[in-house]
Amino acid sequence: MRALVTGAASGLGAALTAALLARGDDVLATDRVSGDGTDGQIDLVLDITSEADWDDAVRHVRERWGGLDLLVNNAGIAGGGRVDVCTLEEWRSIIDVNLLGAVRGVRAFTPLLKEQRSGTVVNVASLAGLVHPAGMGSYNATKAAVVAFTETIGHELASYGVTAHAVCPSYFRTNLMSSMSGSDEAVGRIVAGLVEGSPVTAEDVAAAVLAGLDAGEELIVPDDLARGAWQLKQQDRVAYDAVMRAQAAKLEQAGLEQAGLEQAGLEQAGLEQAGLEQAGLEQAGLEQAGLEQAGLEQAGLEQAGLEQAGLDEAGRG
Questions:
Q1: Would you please indicate which residues are annotated as catalytic (active-site) residues?
Q2: Any residues with CB less than 8 A from the CB of 254 and at least 6 apart, and which?
Q3: What domains can you pick out in the chain, each with its CATH number?
Q4: What is the pTM of this model?
Q5: pLDDT per position as a tens digit, 134-178
């Protein structure tokens, strides 16, 4: 199999690359920066937000293999934040990478896939594309859109022998948090804890993805936690909503506590600044008093000099 994997320098991309190579597939490992990947150097620099880079990738594939059997849109970033905290710029950034990155890839390779009348597209979404926890609006929206987009292209390209598959894992141990950015620090801390505490590895997810592809699953939910959450939403919506809203309340409380700490810090800084300014005023006052005292002493000396001069004059008379 001839496969192209994005975001292959680390995390799930590296694990998928290693798993494909281990079973004898040819892999074009790509990432937005060159560096050491799973099997040596990254084969091709590919920034998924660049249409020019995607065009270069298509040319590279045509020259190297003449076709492509598997396109894996894996690269993405972490993000999120409560609706009144996450900025519109943060929304634009995560949409450009997580959603439009996959769209660019599929658009770029669709002419080749249609031409060869075969191929497989894998778009790595997230459990957040199926269940939608509070505080993750922008991330949830992009991943849900990736799931919807994957189903859509599966319908569009089916007559050309092309299949499309969405992957929706829950939290697993990866370096994805290194790409986490946003204004909502409370969300960042909670997500980081969930990632670090997960018993699932990138290698576990990669193995489940390949097994799902071999089984022909269009929606691959690769771990027990993800399957349990998705099943709860489908089978008991009342219980699902209760869990999600309890989590939302905890997040809001954490945000309020964070805001309180920040406010206390600002007030402390204000008090310290006021103290410094007061000390400065007092020092200036002391210096002014000193100058005035010196002035009085100088005036006294001058007065004494005048009086002495008067006595001397009287003595000469």
A1: 139
A2: 186, 189, 190
A3: 2-235 (3.40.50.720)
A4: 0.78
A5: 989 999 999 999 999 999 999 999 999 999 999 999 988 676 655
